[in-house]
């Protein structure tokens, strides 16, 4: 290989060389614009995820792994702020009423006693049991909310029996 051979190859295939140069220039010109667009979309999606119920529930699961009652309780409060099927007030009381699960009530009562009672019993509450009951209630409440939403969105007349005649 030498420079004269390269120049001869380009001269023999000048149309291909022009197309490659034009494609390279277009890629170089469009790459920063595309990178900025992708970065903006990524940041928007990331921000939406960090404000979502799913992310908050993931933090609750992570907190349950630590076994610290205070961390778990406040992670549950944070999650309830984003959990729509509960109610407009997003409290633990509203969650317990909506879930209607005595085992969940017992687990939440145990962690509240651990945190707020004057005499604490260290062995009563279990992060694993609490998370299992909260997860089951979450699934059930989301299913109920989805079925209520689907029923509300159906039109009154799906298949009308008669079609008015055109004049």
Write the layout of secondary structure elements.
Blueprint: H1 3-12, H2 14-50, H3 53-66, H4 69-82, H5 92-99, H6 102-116, H7 127-152
What labels describe this entry?
167 residues, mainly alpha
Number of H- or I-type helical stretches: 7
The share of residues in helices is over 70%
Strand content: under 5%
What is the end-to-end distance?
83 Å
How would you state the average pLDDT, rounded?
86
- Structural shape: elongated
Order of helical and strand elements: HHHHHHH
Describe this protein's structure.
The chain is mostly helical. It is built from 7 helices and no strands. The protein is elongated, with a radius of gyration of 30 Å. It starts with a helix and ends in a 15-residue tail after the last helix. The mean pLDDT is 86.
Give the structure's gist in a few sentences:
The chain is mainly α and 167 residues long. The protein has helices spanning 3-12, 14-50, 53-66, 69-82, 92-99, 102-116, 127-152. Helix 3 runs antiparallel to helix 4 (69-82), helix 3 (53-66) runs antiparallel to helix 7 and helix 6 crosses helix 7 (127-152).
